[in-house]
Amino acid sequence: MHLRNALRAATALSLISVGAAQAETITIATVNNGDMIRMQGYTDDFTAKTGHEVEWVTLEENVLRQRVTTDITTKGGQFDIMTIGMYETPIWGANGWLVPLDDLSEEYDVADILPAMREGLSHDGTLYAAPFYGESSMVMYRTDLMEKAGLEMPEAPTWQFIREAAAAMDDPENDINGICLRGKAGWGEGGAFITVTGNSFGARWFDEEWTPQFDQPEWKAALEFYVNLMNDYGPEGYATNGFNENLSLFQQGKCGMWIDATVAASFVTNPSDSTVADHVGFALAPNAEGVDKRSNWLWAWALAIPAGTQKEEAAKAFIEWATSKEYIELVAENEGWANVPPGARTSLYETPEYLEVPFAKMTLDSINAADPTNPTVEPVPYVGIQFVAIPEFAGMATEVSQEFSAAYAGQQTVDEALAKAQAIATEVMEAAGYR
């Protein structure tokens, strides 16, 4: 008996020493959004389970995209895990720049990832990034202000109703803007928002011959509507507002409506952070009257491993931990079901406690309504709703978004911004050989 105990102790010690020898410190680049900040607070749980330590590099969205793109294209090797999305993942996976996630454990249950997320983060059927959370976009609005205005938000509003409601709720004397929307330059910031707004007015980036379409009337209608809406009922300086700036404004009670990522719902309804938590309603992203496309997008912030990392095993262990069913349960246990990362796993939407969360169904309906293979009214040669899934898009769209932001700031007219966008896109596409 004593011998058996001694053997067990020796085995346990050898396992601990092997674990210690394999313990790594991994460096993760991530975006400064609320769910990512929350994840960092639980890192001790991961370290306790695996022995691996984590160093975080937390960056504003535009800066993150620039840093990780530079690092992976130059093989810089600064990061063991990168937070990227549906635009980068298939392109980088096809280039051999990411480690395939084709050997995750059976317990992890890859099949449980929502199909829209799994497909958007794969190339040729191979998963290259695991979604931490998934999102579409939707309308978030102040139910008390809507009621005061004598209006009722439809489940599927038009842009024309949104303008009417913004006018009715706008109250400058009490520092309430009728509506808060993104204007910040960056292809994934204000660029994403104006692209889906364009979709809902019948616009598109390119026709089937890859000819840029900014000189077409649909783009003029979309951009003029947006500029007029925001100049009339939006906050001062909206040209520099992105997701986090508008989240802060809404939480402070300074917006009648906000149309943005579905993931924001948990933050605007959290009484610890939001002064209007008890007065928030939700609706599908709007469409223009007579146009059968809504202005909602499809996105996942996901975790990927750059090829060439020396810490692949530890990086995979972190991804399995952070994007697992168990992580969702950990957050639910500590902070309530409303605060778990949404939109990534089918099982979450089969959990009775989660389905009681007021925005759960609208989030899933918005995700399911997004079709990246059919994003516009007229046919297009590309995949992607708020982006065009070609390598040239990020640089080109960042430049275009800068011209649009200049129009929002009153530095140029809508016509001037669209003419410059047409010239930018034409030059890029001709240089790249699309035309």
Automatic annotation (TrEMBL):
Pfam families: SBP_bac_1 (PF01547). It is found in: Periplasm. The keyword Signal applies. InterPro entries: Bact_solute-bd_prot1 (IPR050490), SBP (IPR006059). Keywords: Signal. Residues 1-23 form the signal peptide. Belongs to the bacterial solute-binding protein 1 family. This is Sugar ABC transporter substrate-binding protein. It comes from Marivita lacus.
